[in-house]
Amino acid sequence: MLEAIDVHADGLKRAALAAGPAAPVPNCPKWTVHDLVTHIALVHDTITSLAMGREPRPEPPPDWEDVLGWWDGRRLGLREALARNPDTPWTRRMAHETAIHRLDAESALPDPVETRFSPEFANDGIDEFLTFVVPRRGFAVNVRITTPERTWTVGTPGTEVTGDADDVYRAVWGRPHRAAISGDRLPAV
């Protein structure tokens, strides 16, 4: 999962640089690319702080070039902190947080690229969403999720989500997808 953080952070940064700081992020309608990069830098800093047992430094610089450099420092700190204990659940959480925000940055491009996640990574992201994110955010979900490789059932399903792992992964995170959803809506993330 450490490698996935690097791969998706690099993809996010490439897209952010190509789109530019003022570009709107269609996947996150209230954000610009600058807002997105600031957010991921803050998340990386917070998780680094948790992993290192120190207070977060939540004051990102306002200037685009400076925030890019600040994020680079947060990425390196995150990598170092998680490499010390790669089995912490934060490694998995950051791999998926960074991957989803990579999609967001790519959505800001004039010609968005079609990044697809492997079934292994996407199924892991679905599982991480259901077993880590949902309980921590206090979502009440009653859902059956089915990909070709796996099925999850949480509660008494009022919602069914089916499709290939990549599309279902995007669906549970509220990103554009081609999964089939029937019944109640999924919780907004």
Q: Can you characterise this structure?
A:
The chain is an alpha+beta fold and 189 residues long. Helices cover 56% and strands 8% of the residues. The chain is built from six helices and four strands; from the N terminus they run αααααβββαβ. The chain has helices spanning 2-19, 33-52, 64-84, 89-107, 119-137, 165-172; strands at residues 143-146, 151-154, 159-162, 180-183. The protein has a four-stranded mixed β-sheet, with helices on one face. A hairpin with a 4-residue loop joins β1 and β2. The protein is globular, with a radius of gyration of 17 Å. The chain starts with a helix and ends in a 6-residue tail after the last strand. The model has no long low-confidence stretch (mean pLDDT 92).
Task: Give the helices and strands, then pairings.
Blueprint: H1 2-19, H2 33-52, H3 64-84, H4 89-107, H5 119-137, E1 143-146, E2 151-154, E3 159-162, H6 165-172, E4 180-183
Parallel strand pairs: 1-3
Antiparallel strand pairs: 1-2, 3-4
Please provide a brief summary of the model.
The chain is of the alpha+beta class and 189 residues long. The protein has six helices and four strands, in the order H-H-H-H-H-E-E-E-H-E.
Give the tags.
single chain; 189 residues; alpha+beta; 4-stranded mixed beta sheet; 56% helix
